[in-house]
Amino acid sequence: MKTVDHTTEEVSYLEAISQALDEEMTRDERVFLMGEDIGTYGGAFKITEGFLQKYGEWRVLDTPLSESGFVGAATGAAIMGLRPVVEMQFADFISCAFDQITEVAAKNHYRWGAAVPMVIRAPFGGGVHGGPFHSECPEGWFFHSPGLKLVAPSTPYDAKGLLKAAIRDPNPVIYFEHKFLYRRIKSALPQQDFIVPLGKADVKRAGSDISIITYGAMVHLALEAAQTLAQEGIDLEVVDLRTLMPLDKETIYSSVRKTSKVILLHEDNKTGGIGAEIAALLAEDCFDSLDGPVVRIAPPDTPVPFSTPLEEFFLPKTSDVIATARKLAAY
Amino acid sequence: MKTVDHTTEEVSYLEAISQALDEEMTRDERVFLMGEDIGTYGGAFKITEGFLQKYGEWRVLDTPLSESGFVGAATGAAIMGLRPVVEMQFADFISCAFDQITEVAAKNHYRWGAAVPMVIRAPFGGGVHGGPFHSECPEGWFFHSPGLKLVAPSTPYDAKGLLKAAIRDPNPVIYFEHKFLYRRIKSALPQQDFIVPLGKADVKRAGSDISIITYGAMVHLALEAAQTLAQEGIDLEVVDLRTLMPLDKETIYSSVRKTSKVILLHEDNKTGGIGAEIAALLAEDCFDSLDGPVVRIAPPDTPVPFSTPLEEFFLPKTSDVIATARKLAAY
Amino acid sequence: MDVSVIAKEIKRDDLLQMYDYLRLTRALEERITALYRQGRIVGGVYTSHGMEAIAVGYASALERDDVISPFHRDMGAFLIRGFTPGEVLAQYLGKRTGPTKGKDGNVHMGDLKRGVFGFVSHLADNLPVAVGAALAFRIRGESRVVFAGTGDGGSSRGDFHEAMNFAAVRRLPVVLFCNNNQYAYSTPLHLQMAIPNVVDRAKAYGMPGEIVDGNDVAAVYLAAKQAIARARTGEGPTFLEFKTMRMHGHSEHDPAKYVPRELLDEWKTKDPILKAEQLITQLGYGEEAYFQGVTERVTREVEAGVEFAERSPLPEGPEVLEGVFAMSAES
Amino acid sequence: MDVSVIAKEIKRDDLLQMYDYLRLTRALEERITALYRQGRIVGGVYTSHGMEAIAVGYASALERDDVISPFHRDMGAFLIRGFTPGEVLAQYLGKRTGPTKGKDGNVHMGDLKRGVFGFVSHLADNLPVAVGAALAFRIRGESRVVFAGTGDGGSSRGDFHEAMNFAAVRRLPVVLFCNNNQYAYSTPLHLQMAIPNVVDRAKAYGMPGEIVDGNDVAAVYLAAKQAIARARTGEGPTFLEFKTMRMHGHSEHDPAKYVPRELLDEWKTKDPILKAEQLITQLGYGEEAYFQGVTERVTREVEAGVEFAERSPLPEGPEVLEGVFAMSAES
Ligand SMILES: Cc1ncc(C[n+]2csc(CCOP(=O)(O)OP(=O)(O)O)c2C)c(N)n1
Ligand SMILES: Cc1ncc(C[n+]2csc(CCOP(=O)(O)OP(=O)(O)O)c2C)c(N)n1
Ligand SMILES: [Mg+2]
Ligand SMILES: [Mg+2]
Prior knowledge:
The complex is a heterotetramer, with two copies of chain A and two copies of chain C.
Chain A: E1 10-12, H1 13-27, E2 31-35, H2 51-55, E3 60-62, H3 67-79, E4 83-87, H4 98-112, E5 119-124, H5 139-143, E6 149-151, H6 156-168, E7 173-178, E8 186-188, E9 202-205, E10 210-214, H7 218-231, E11 236-240, E12 243-245, H8 249-259, E13 262-265, H9 274-285, E14 295-297, H10 308-314, H11 318-329
Parallel strand pairs in A: 2-3, 2-4, 4-5, 5-7, 6-7, 10-11, 10-13, 13-14
Antiparallel strand pairs in A: 1-8, 6-12, 9-11
Helix pairs in contact in A: 1-6, 3-4, 7-11
Chain C: H1 3-9, H2 12-37, H3 52-61, E1 67-69, H4 75-80, H5 85-92, H6 126-140, E2 146-151, H7 158-169, E3 174-180, E4 183-184, E5 187-188, E6 209-213, H8 217-232, E7 238-243, H9 261-268, H10 272-283, H11 288-311
Helix pairs in contact in C: 2-3, 2-10, 2-11, 3-8, 5-11, 6-7
The structure holds thiamine diphosphate (2 copies) and magnesium ion (2 copies).
The site of one magnesium ion has 6 residues of chain D, from strand 4.
């Protein structure tokens, strides 16, 4: 997978998403886009800038303000053989389409055998002073709904490869793209077509002392902490889940069996987050390999606050990871 | 709390809910009811039979088929000082009101200080041949949404006492009442007014070998299993959570510290269910007390199937609990 | 409807075939009701008794390539699309030979090959999905049409609004209908809406609407034909309100005491089968003996179906685990 | 509006006070925009520039005891309800002295004591809630009224439908309005709805509706007065469409290149402040010098507000944890 031919210019996480959409639309005429302001305006974050001109108004549909309606419509179009990619203007508004996603799209194949090859793009996460309604991490809700796949890339490479894989997948996939990363990280990408397969985690840094299992923007926090900790002789292994559902238990377990100590890090609220599930899996399946408590680092159970000092307090910080890792190393 | 004066006739779980509503409406004129078919018809399960005649059409409102609309309306009425109790005809339809519950009601007090003293009654659970849309256990979604309290009684006593407490609580509370229990269990109740405080679990059976932590209909499974296991010398402690949010960590932890072995049992899908959170809490806070893997018993990650053999396979069974407990006891 | 118009507009064979399906629907549902009373049906039973002309009329007006997203009282549509009484009964008995293989129950049948979408309990959820199927036809430039409906009750849901609006804005090839049978469960129209006719809702979307006698299969057929033709020629969506009356309880367990006797008596005289027989007699297409022949035929068909269904195997427990995710989009 | 009608129907002081608030709104929002350009605002800025007459007009028409559920461009309503420029600016700067103490941002301010509900980003979510407040008034027999709005965009959401319908069915004391400023973000009306006027939506609910010149504060005031009177006297809800134009970008970061220059030029001549000044001059209530006096006064007020806000403390991190749950319903 990673025999990569780094010949392109550096592209941002945001550009990687644009490229994936563009390439898939060119490759497969069944792929089309729906969402608020994605056409003329090119999307609130400009990910689909120029797409309307290139693909026309029937493949780039500006919709009325109706998340439930257009997710439902995407489901119907997907059932009929198209490959819709729907944009939530902010992931927060996915609550308006919750019923269509969990009750219709997720259960459709199970109930009567018709596949729903649909992607919902959900720009999520905090650190952008968005407050309670423009910063949410809604993946926890959907993690608990059988029939959905969930993806959350942390790098331009993964962002592009996972989005392409999601579009080609025959199931409803929610693609959580982190707003904070959009323009903050860049890397060169292979020139040839590539995908990152769904369901495969990626060890972003190999280490021997503690496994930190995370995804999305938090991966960068973990990597930062790992650098500092390395100087103290604490060797962190950073596992980037990439796909949240289905979880790559194999990679998780083999990392934990190696290190015996685990930190679970996410930006979604702590209680009932994906970290809880991983802790439960480990307590059940890797109990004998654990050499210390399984520690979660996640925001408190509150909405995402608006004001800068509040949001800073709320979000996990590199220093939290460092402090936790030190304690765990000493356990 | 349990210095109970058992002077009433035996009442069913369903009657206990009716009584709680009736008594609270009499006690507090701010309490009123909204929902589909709760007036003239007395509710799909006849819980509010006779209420319309007794309290009139402005305290027992038959609504249009609009879960989002009437949960939103209840929120507004609650903000203005009333105490709405809203009925979902089946818990499954709560997905239609998901956005109002998680984005408006749950966050309101946090955002601008206005309390939302509202109760949403959600008849949930399987075992009634309801299929994918009339059997759901949706508590996992809401467990992950800060600002909501969640309740799930297993007995007529708890059903009555918790509903009264929920109505008196100044926060949005989702009250999960198990359809399977409605007419299947009965007990005598105290004649005087009583509540079961939110946030307190109840040890339904004290035991020394294994803690089984559960709620709702599954409590009865656990108690049944405990009887069988007792004959084999395995002494199960059955912890009935009763309130799912906030969790009574104290009772959970003290049970686990006593027994050192844990089974988590619920009817909600396994992945991302409440069992996951409890396992995570234990792995973090009681790691040193654990003498074996933390085992979850829960349905697989599928919708609730319709046909009898499928639903039987899907739902946890007493025999599952027994088999798991034996294995764990031998660990 | 004027008989001379009907003679001109509807072919003799078509009318007789519709009569056949009216009778088959009635016979099948009466058999299902009887089985229900014997306790042999799994789950609930919602019939189209007295409303059979709607599904029979519209499904007869469609081309084979068109798609139906039926309402929960549209048994006739399934039969016309080739679901045999045996398959239907197998579905009601939770057998593996039912269209959902026991995964879902009663009218929740769907089959992409036969152009019928599976019904979702959550009312009106199927409308955005149907509109999306029409969007797929529009995007691909196919001259296919979607026919999709809800009840008077369902028309109060947000998804109705979002679906209607989106269909109108994009002028999609879809016919949306409301089966107005005066009640949503126990809730009469005046507690559901403050308008005299559901068709008034269409005005909010700039969509043409029409009131049709839902008990007159010829009227339904001709109105559907016209709306379908508009959709097919790119003139956009139409809304049809079929006036009718629910003659049984909401489901077979409901004695429907809340419905005034006189209302039922009045509508009994408008029974769609009676009406069709009068028409056929007037047109000289058949009389007593002919009708008797149909009786015998449909009875045989239904009984053969019962036999098939009862002989059919139940699914095996582990089949629960199959089908949550699609392996390929081609189903 | 006919000047003689206005002279008769609106008191001189009331008109002059509305003019004051138009100017204060404009001055405050221009100051906020300037601060935004300097990078001193936390989060986004959505202004009512060119639309100030709507909130000023309707809020002036209400009694003190009535409740407002404002739209996101209704700054004037906050000012009229006694939110000082200092408090508002503190909110925009995320200070503890803002109405949400830094928990939420920009126009998401609410205060029960001042009868203003906090805005929820999810458009139209506030409408069912507002309708519920009106329901509380109806249940308690109070003669209070709710005024609540959304945008042309928001009127496509399901919650708009469910709120409108419920208000109409129960004839609740609420005025619902749409601020039709021609665009939802970048999306023009014709991609949002297939009707010429948003007011056409009211017909679906049997609710009287009226089109009002939203740039004429006198017209807004009088139309609001009339609708409020209807609501107060038990005649039920009214829908008002205020025609106006968004003169800035959707938010201050948006250059709004998608809006034709000519449209803006045309609407510039209809500026609500210009219109109000013409009216005041015509009526002989004031002229140049008077207007100049107002300019000085509002400038002073705004500058005092800036000073207050900048001097105000930020919240401390741990305040994040406060307020998720209400301790008592009395806030
Ligand atoms: C969203 C939702 N809420 C509640 C229900 C429960 N329910 C099932 S049918 C029904 C009444 C439906 O009335 P209508 O739409 O008029 O259809 P009818 O049964 O009269 O044909 C209700 C409330 C549901 N299926 N979906
Ligand atoms: C449910 C929902 N989806 C998307 C958004 C993002 N969004 C914020 S404002 C806006 C456009 C609103 O248009 P309109 O209702 O006409 O109000 P205006 O801003 O024009 O006054 C959008 C799409 C939102 N706030 N809520
Ligand atoms: Mg009906
Ligand atoms: Mg607008």
